[in-house]
Amino acid sequence: MNLAGSIFGSTIGRKIIIAATGVILIGFVIGHLVGNLQIFEEADRLNGYGAFLHQLGPLLWVARIVLLGSVILHIWAATVLTLENHAARQIKYGVKHTIQATLASRMMRWTGVVVLAFLLYHLAHFTLGFTSVATYKENLPLYTMVGDYRVAGFLAVKSGTQVLDVRSMVILGFQQPVVALFYIVAVGLLSFHLLHGADSLFQTFGWRSQKWAGALRKLVIVFCAIYFLGNLAIPGAVLLGKIPVAEPARAAARP
Amino acid sequence: MVAETNSNTISITLRVWRQAGPDAPGKFVDYPAANLSTHMSFLEMLDVVNDGLTLKGEEPIAFAHDCREGICGTCSCTINGKAHGPGHGVATCQIYMRAFRDGEVIVVEPFRAKAFPLVKDLVVDRSAFDRIIQAGGFISVRTGAAPDANSIPVPKTDADLAMDAAACIGCGACVAACKNASAMLFVAAKVSQLGLLPQGQPERDSRVLAMVNTMDALGFGSCTNQYECSAACPKTISHDFIARLNRDYLKASVRSAFKPVSSAAGGSG
Ligand code: HEM
Ligand code: FES
Prior knowledge:
Strand order of the largest sheet of chain B: 2-1-5-3-4
Number of strands of chain B: 7
Largest interface: A-B, 46 and 50 residues
Number of domains of chain B: 2
CATH topology of chain A: 3 helical TM bundles of succinate and fumarate reductases
Shape of chain A: elongated
Number of helices of chain A: 10
Bound molecules: protoporphyrin IX containing FE, FE2/S2 (inorganic) cluster
Order of helices and strands of chain B: EEHEEEEEHHHHHHHH
Mean pLDDT of chain A: 95
Structural class of chain A: mainly alpha
Distance between the termini of chain A: 62 Å
Low-confidence stretches of chain A: none
Low-confidence stretches of chain B: none
Number of strands of chain A: 4
Helix content of chain B: 25-40%
Strand content of chain B: 5-15%
Largest sheet of chain B: 5 strands, mixed
Structural class of chain B: alpha+beta
Oligomer: heterodimer
CATH class of the largest domain in chain B: Mainly Alpha
Radius of gyration of chain B: 22 Å
Mean pLDDT of chain B: 94
CATH superfamily of the largest domain in chain B: Alpha-helical ferredoxin
CATH topology of the largest domain in chain B: Fumarate Reductase Iron-sulfur Protein, Chain B, domain 2
Radius of gyration of chain A: 21 Å
Strand content of chain A: under 5%
Number of helices of chain B: 9
């Protein structure tokens, strides 16, 4: 068999696809969270960051295509394997028994599906503006940068530049309790997905062994907890009124 | 002094999957079994129940067994949903009635996997494992007189690991216990026991590729890294071997894709 055949055509190969795309997606969600936490600083930070990402132009598109491709491959491989796994045991046991499989590992398909549903909604909300149209960034007054936004010391967005007010969009979005709640539930389930996934991928790549499996498990638990709390902080703080929105944006959002 | 006998007796209800043949409909049937010595093995209990059935002119329960000492891997069934029953690191034949409570309903089912078609009652056909072994093929060793000891150096740790893998008795409990009816632990053990040793190197890549392809083609599921297999294994074979198998498979795929082939090998001119 050729290389593509042994990766796409075998069960182990498809697991490796899930793990490799999982690593890309984990890298993304970490970066995404760290970027978003700038919402706790002055408005220049998140808005400058948003403008900087859009300035990347073709690079941004490369990242988007890699991410989209990863999501598609991840779901494709997971779906094919799940169907095969169901076919491999057509007659179920009368008594169902689990010795040590974790709850997170048994819920992967469900947590994955909810994360996918959330992902689509999230894109419709903040990237495409299909929902919450009134508070979509392009419908809010532009934000004028107070200072320079620098990335690794380099000037990215100059003081005085007019940029999209993504920060207000996020805050106004999360001021709707249902939106904030869905976000919290979804990142909770994503963290739960990773409670198995981030551990499991080491086994899939063949790097895990009993010698350090215990340490890896603890590391993954700590990572998932930090990831969840970091994500909880944003809608949580908005709901508690800790991050007020600038007046022009609020006025514009009023129906 | 004569050893004290602490033999108790218990009475149980056996709820067994009965199915006359591969295409016949199957169902659970209850059989009460009274006054069983707790020193009796689980298979002896089945013998007793079967004696009763035979006397009544009923068809005895078909179950697979051979050595009855945990080394052949023939005894295959799940007891209360667990492959090889309530023990840890033991096969069904090493389960004793003291592991059960008086009055308990014990549910006994055949191993469930598409790749292990049912033959009768609790007996399934596990020859799919044989086909995986066949796909593994031969190893290139010098035959003839026994070689000198230690003529091929093998690190002790590798030898020990290879022996751990070689403890696999091919019973199929890993498949039965796996949520996906995957044979990964079996294949991992068989691939590793040779892959860890110098004698297994010449065919290492072709072996892992062929065994995994055969495993897939036979309709086993895939691994979701939940480790039910190693927990049910009567030889407590570690799922570390599955990690090793994944790594071996990936390396072999890459190597076989890029390794040059001798032009003479083709034979066409
Ligand atoms: C940001 C989104 C996601 C991330 C970061 C992520 C991450 C991961 C990781 C790291 C793994 C482990 C791979 C391995 O076992 O080696 C995994 C497995 C899996 N994921 Fe995702 N995933 C995401 C979204 C999804 C979605 C949307 C679905 C389904 C619709 C999904 C379904 C699955 C399934 C079924 C598995 C296999 C579980 C198993 O083998 O037990 N995931 N994911
Ligand atoms: S009968 Fe041989 S292992 Fe149980």
